[in-house]
Amino acid sequence: MTTVAAIAPPTLETPRLVLRPLNADDAAPMTDLADDREVARMTTSIPHPFSQAMADAFIARMARRDARHEIALAVEHRREGFIGVLGFHPNEGPSSELGYWIGRPYWGQGYMTEAVLAAVDWARAGWKKRLLVSGHFADNPASGQVLCKAGFLYTGEVRERFSVARDAPATTRMMVWLG
Ligand SMILES: CC(C)(COP(=O)(O)OP(=O)(O)OC[C@H]1O[C@@H](n2cnc3c(N)ncnc32)[C@H](O)[C@@H]1OP(=O)(O)O)[C@@H](O)C(=O)NCCC(=O)NCCS
């Protein structure tokens, strides 16, 4: 039997950011920035409150993933250091689901658009993905704008997705990207 070796997550450079594999030192800034209800409530999976133990566990879990199937990258600002996370997670069939968050002090400066554009370029050229999906809660139009600018389109499908921080389902507008 042939075994195919796991591959490592990439490092991607943009003018202001470096997207790179997470490491244990990211846990402290991740906790500072993710332990924010306004960040957590826009995601399905970040609990609120968010502890350093949760950050440690997330980083350790992602380090065990095979980058052929799942990738989580630190979004690092060249001056400020760690500012958020971007990940591609397994989804039905050949598609991957894009998710991301950035700390509140860094919102509204084009950082996540810059990160998502680089990540999607790599997904097409380096990871050979042809189909990505994502979705945003209906009360989070900023995320919809990021996805639109990266070339995602609304499918028209609206799902109720559970948000751990809200402890409730949230109406989610689904989007796709074709490479
Ligand atoms: C959503 C999020 C990732 C955006 O990151 P960001 O770095 O602030 O995004 P950018 O600055 O690159 O782009 C934001 C866009 O949304 C627009 N926007 C912001 N608030 C908006 C609103 N209320 N309605 C419509 N558009 C809005 C901005 O104008 C900007 O678009 P523009 O460049 O065309 O003007 C960030 O706010 C975040 O992490 N939020 C919490 C977690 C989260 O929502 N994760 C995504 C889950 S789907």
Any chance you could write out the topology, listing elements then pairs?
Blueprint: E1 12-13, E2 17-21, H1 27-34, H2 37-40, H3 52-63, E3 71-77, E4 81-90, E5 96-102, H4 111-125, E6 131-137, H5 141-149, E7 153-163, E8 168-178
The structure holds coenzyme A (COA).
Residues 39, 42-43, 100-102, 107-113, 136, 140-143, 145-146 line the site of coenzyme A.
Question: Can you offer a commentary on this structure?
Answer:
- With 179 residues, the chain is of the alpha+beta class.
- The chain has a domain at 12-128: Aminopeptidase.
- The chain is 27% helix and 34% strand.
- Strands 1-2-3-4-5-6-8-7 form an eight-stranded mixed sheet, sandwiched between helices.
- Helix 1 (27-34) crosses helix 3 (52-63).
- The N and C termini lie far apart (32 Å).
- It binds coenzyme A.
- The site of coenzyme A (COA) has 20 residues, from strand 5, helix 4 and helix 5.
